[in-house]
Amino acid sequence: MLDQVKQKAKEILEKKEADGVLGLRKGLFDVIHPHVFTVPSELDALVLEPKWLFAKMARAILREKPQAWRLAVIVRGCDERAIVELVKRNQIDRERLLTLGYACDMDQAKACLCSRPFPQKLDAGAAVEGVDPLADERVKAYLEGDAGKRMEMWAAQLKRCIKCYGCRNSCPICVCVPCKLEDDVWVERGVIPAEMISFQIIRAFHLSDTCVACGACQEACPVGIPLMTLQLSMREALKKDYNYEAGLDANRKSPVLFDFAKEPRPGQAVPDWVDSMGKKP
Amino acid sequence: MNPEFIRTICPYCGTGCGLVLKVEEGRAAATYPDRENPVSRGSLCVKGWVAHEFVHHPERLTSPLLRKGDRFEEISWEEAIALAASKLKETAAKYGPDSIGGLSSAKCTNEENYLFQKLIRAAFKTNNVDHCARLCHAATTVGMLQTLGSGAMTNSISDLAGADCILFIGSNAAESHPVLMGEVYKALDRGAKMIVIDPRETPVARNAHKLLRLNPGTDIPLLAGMMRHIVDKGLHKTGFIEKRMENFEALKTFLQAWPVEKAAKETGIDEAVIREVAETYARAENAAIVYCMGITQHACGAANVIAVCDLAMLCGHVGKPFSGIYPLRGQNNVQGACDMGALPNLYPGYQAVADAAIREKFQKAWKADLSDKPGRTVTELINAAGKDIRALYIMAENPCISDPDVNHVMEALQRLDFLIVQDIFLTETAKFAHLILPGACFAEKTGTYTNTERRFQLLHKAVNPPGKAMGDFEILCLMGKALGLAFDCNSPADVMSEYAGLVPAYAGISFNRLERAGIQWPCPDESHPGTRFLHGEKFTRGLGRFVIPDYTPPMEKPDAEYPYYLNTGRVFAHYHTGTMTRRSPFLNREIEDPYVEIHPEDAAALGVGAGDWIRVTSRRGSIVTTARITDRVVKGSIFAPFHFTEARANMLTNPVLDPACKTPEYKVCAVKMEKDHEAKAR
């Protein structure tokens, strides 16, 4: 698959479909890092692992370049979805960006509990079937069953937070400036753990209709908080009640912002099990 | 132009997380976690994420500076090196070799530390070289050497994830070694028990199953009470003790003096709790003890360490995976600075200077005449400044904030005939220098750091030092040559092969083996994969030894005049003397002002509200700081982070030393407090 991606990337540069290709490069001392390939011969150093999402970086690169400059991004499914979300929010000009999509393998899909381990525009590799994250035992433990017990589990996890901001830094969609997590009104400075409601839950809600379930936040978390699980319930609610999934359709706006008028039957908007924060302690 | 990405190691704590620096047009522009680093595996703490922020700070030193009266003038490197060498030589000639002293640095690389101690020892025939390990884990080196034979952390960080019981004593790893806590939480998610022994309710304590808030400085009574209960209940590992240990009878005799009732009285912990915790630790299949400054920074720090080792060995929790003793190293390379012999009594690899055969080996290798007399420690060097010590060469240390009783330190430094400070900023210490040499920070050098789990890890140079500043390695080479030594070391890799040839435990380590994963010493030959845990078949000293820990209560207890205990330590957003973190905008935003933690009842009694300015005074000094009102501290105790130059906690601390290891008692002294009404105007 790597060769296939390299070949397509070379074609993109040769045919001048884009001025640069953003992907991973094995560089000096074998360090693997994001890189904008601009000459076809450079692409010999292209690699696809480890998982690294480029959406936010693509936005930054395009902002620095002149309007006529176009970028191709080598993407997995989650990264493609993240780009779609940034396009919807006018953070990326779709006219200036094209994607070169490849499918993740089954191991990767399982590791990420990914339900869509492939991009919609698939250029390399064969799509494998996704994993239902809600069938995972650990996820179930956090999202189903006794609310009081789940509340305790979440509290125990979230009070481990050392406020590294790694979840925000690694998120492909977190682009707000200034960031609410750096606002004194919400987040008290100088103390850890970060407050559960005003830091963790605000972060989760900020991303509730944007999160593409890539799991980058969880992977960057030094203390292993199941941050992606925290998003799953909201993703699921949107799917169930609005048939909406972040990152799939660039033309469909978030129902949280636009669909209040055509809401489903009253009382049905939030399924019973989407109360994983339970009663107040 | 495309940015470059350079893999290196975090310059803050001893965990040793992997960083990837993004370099744009010669400047470190961003930091990413290194997903391939075996220690941090793609995670970082808040300090790591912004490690690039201080690198290009406008206050970086960019030229050698010479004191002219009360100001500094820029001079050339040629002048600076010639002056430094001639002043040191002059002093040695006039007052004898032992009038020269050097403070090496736990912030610098192994190769720089090796060169520094070699320079002091070979050029001046003195062993007056030490570094800040004296202020933190000297007690560990001394205590663990007697019991196990090696002062290093016995196991690997990742072993913590497999432990069934983790006992924290005097470690607030959630703030001080945040990324390492991830392994602890993996253990908890598997169902492990976590017990924290600390007078403060730290972020670590908040995640524990049990918190034992003992009276300050009563660690030995607590550990002795636990051991007594274990022996009484017959929970000690008899087979292990018979086969692997010596001196058990003496320990039993000692424990006769510590019935659990007495331990409870001394520590303020319930008898039942002591018994329960002792049983949990002893019965666990694999149990780990994590400890830090709360054990070592006491007047009986070495004895505290011995008591920790005794407990672990009594239960057979040493010499196997997922258990062991974890003295968490503070500085990024404090393990390495000790390993490289930046210690007054030991050559590289913990080889004694007093041993004639060892000395002979180093004399031959270094082609120099070496002293057989152990040198002075950090605190002794400073105390003797201007008396027996006439000239001091300080590389990247900041004793004017980090040493106890800093008023005394500042007086002492001013008594010196000549003070050289090599650093990256004009530190509080550099202000007293006669000559300042501008060095390089982590992003500007190639070399190795050794993390708390004995792992040599590689740094790659990402950017150039600012202005005329130079790598510490290059400065040391110039200094060595100016002092007449054969310092023709071409590269850090060459220096590594030199010390690998002198220390059997590092013999198999070379630069080309370190890319990505690093190697944990001992690594005796080139095919050896490195060592995950120590003391497996036998202890480093042969048999493990139960040593009797002599209990000394804190030297200064609260009284009518100074009614509060003061405890000092670190916070998550800052690092040590704040030289780097307080110049990092993101970190300084998180915590801008100095503070002390005060219990609500004490605050009410003093009429102090949250954020009020208060004056804290001890017998040695006085600071003005702000109040944080919290029950993280117990009534009658306050806690002060020591990072703040405008309110140095170490103005207050007691410089009394543990006689065995010369570590000061930072963790306990007596203070008084009052609301500072004038400060409002500031």
Architecture overview:
Chain A is α/β, with parallel strands linked by helices and about 280 residues long. Chain A has two domains: about 1-130, no CATH class; about 135-260, no CATH class. Helices cover about 35% and strands about 10% of the residues of chain A. Chain A has helices at about 1-15, 55-65, 75-90, 105-110, 135-145, 145-160, 165-170, 195-205, 215-220, 225-240, 255-260, and strands at about 20-25, 30-35, 45, 70-75, 95-100. In chain B, the strands form eight sheets. Chain B has a seven-stranded mixed sheet. Helix content of chain B is about 30%, strand content about 20%. In chain B, helix 3 packs across helix 21, helix 8 crosses helix 12 (about 270-285) and helix 8 runs parallel beside helix 14. Chain B has four domains: about 5-50, N-terminal domain of TfIIb (Single Sheet), CATH 2.20.25; about 65-130 and about 330-520, Rossmann fold, CATH 3.40.50; about 140-325, 3-Layer(aba) Sandwich (Dimethylsulfoxide Reductase, domain 2), CATH 3.40.228.10; about 565-680, Barwin-like endoglucanases (Beta Barrel), CATH 2.40.40.
